[in-house]
Amino acid sequence: MKPIIQCEGLRKSFGEQTVLDGLDITLRPDSVSVIIGRSGGGKSVLLKHIIGLMRPDSGRVLVNGQDITALSERELVAARRQFGLLFQEGALFDSMNVAENVAFPLVEHSGLSRREIADIVDAKLAAVGLSGAGHKMPAELSGGMRKRVGLARAIALDPKIVLFDEPTSGLDPVMSAAINDLILRTRGEFGATCVVISHDIPATMAIADEIFMLYNGRIIASGSPDEIRASDDPVVRQFIEGRADGPIGLA
Ligand SMILES: Nc1ncnc2c1ncn2[C@@H]1O[C@H](COP(=O)(O)OP(=O)(O)OP(=O)(O)O)[C@@H](O)[C@H]1O
């Protein structure tokens, strides 16, 4: 199957610090791909390269075969419309109510009428289980609700690819399970490719079609949850078992 996202030889340093060190990754369409790895290991930096918010020092990022590292800022704006992005805290606009938040990308990019936009907003809020919450302000919402509003906004334009940056961090187990269901539905019902960054190993095992382990600036292991569980790589084992002792230093 043709990959939807392919990074080849990505290198990125900040001063002396090398964060991506010749990273290769290939993501399949219509799949849930979960990228795991240490805090500060470069997962968010990788995500920013995939949507063209950061440019690599060298290497390429192909999205549907198009090298987005070669695009101008103007072309990038168009290319980014293929993506929906759910930020860690939902990143809602605090001065807008829930419906206005979800409507925002539609107002900015779709050219649809107010009536059409209102219908889409209702449908997306229903999809995330928040029908009737359109008038609420972000400050009135729980963390889980904020994430669901963020997801409704991320899928407002029916993007082909939805990126989730630590979607379950800070949520209770029930809300985490609800968010994981939503990720699976985002792939199933909306036909989107989902790229998830996560520290949550049980959730990763439950939702991933393919897991990628980022370590020392490269993908050191990839495979289905069963393959990753059976990995004999000591770094992978330490990470998925959550042990303090092992090759991964704590520094
Ligand atoms: N714009 C930047 N300028 C300088 N350093 C940066 C920049 N962005 C990221 N870094 C550094 O790159 C490293 C990787 O950061 P990144 O946010 O990608 O980690 P992460 O794996 O997403 O971590 P976490 O799981 O804690 O969110 C960190 O050491 C960070 O300080």
UniProtKB/TrEMBL annotation:
**Residue stretches making up the ABC transporter domain:** 5-241
Q: Which GO terms describe its molecular function?
A: ATP binding; ATP hydrolysis activity
A Pfam match is ABC_tran
Q: Transport among the record's keywords?
A: yes
Q: Which keywords, in A-to-Z order, does the entry hold?
A: ATP-binding, Nucleotide-binding, Transport
Give the PANTHER family listed for this entry. INTERMEMBRANE PHOSPHOLIPID TRANSPORT SYSTEM ATP-BINDING PROTEIN MLAF, PROTEIN TRIGALACTOSYLDIACYLGLYCEROL 3, CHLOROPLASTIC
Full protein name = Phospholipid/cholesterol/gamma-HCH transport system ATP-binding protein
Instruction: List the source organism.
Output: Desulfobaculum xiamenense
